[in-house]
Write a structure and sequence with these properties.
By secondary structure, the chain is of the alpha+beta class. It contains three helices and four strands, in the order H-H-E-E-E-E-H. The chain has two domains: about 50 residues, no CATH class; about 70 residues, no CATH class. A four-stranded antiparallel beta sheet has the order 1-2-3-4, covered by helices on one side. It holds the Pfam family FliO.
Length: about 140
């Protein structure tokens, strides 16, 4: 008989918690639909002056375009062991040679990324030739060994 009462008490408590969560989620959804602060929806209507103290959210509408963060580009990879490898990644005009293992990532070397030039006419040759990624990996392997 005691086990039945404990189970019944647990069911009632669970129903009360789920009911409270449902009630709060409905109040928050209504306040967000109005464009006001989410916390303002939790306050009773007679406490509206307290809701004015909480800053409101801007109404949904056209937003200012966000600038996209620069992408990280993986230029080359080279396996140097069972689960270890060297990775050449480019970000923000800098090339990073990274040592990647199971336990972490460490920066082995950095250098400026080569400038990508526009296509030149056939009779002109580029003044500076970019360093190929394989050469970077070979240099990093020599510095690690």
């Amino acid at each position: 008989m005691d086990d039945l009462l404990v189970a019944l008490r647990a069911i009632v408590a669970l129903a009360a918690v789920l009911g409270l969560l449902y009630f709060l989620s409905r109040r928050l959804q209504k306040s967000q639909a109005k464009g006001s602060s989410p916390l303002a929806g939790l306050l009773p209507k007679r406490w509206t002056r307290l809701g004015e103290l909480v800053p409101s959210r801007p109404a949904p509408g056209p937003r200012a375009p966000r600038t996209r963060p620069e992408k990280i580009t993986v230029v080359a990879r080279s396996g140097i062991g069972g689960k270890a490898q060297l990775v050449v990644a480019e970000f923000g005009g800098i090339r990073y040679v990274l040592g990647v293992t199971e336990s972490g990532i460490s920066v082995v070397d950095t250098q400026e990324a080569p400038v990508v030039e526009e296509e030149l006419p056939a009779d002109e040759s580029p003044a500076v030739s970019p360093q190929p990624p394989d050469d970077i990996v070979d240099r990093a392997l020599r510095s690690v060994a």
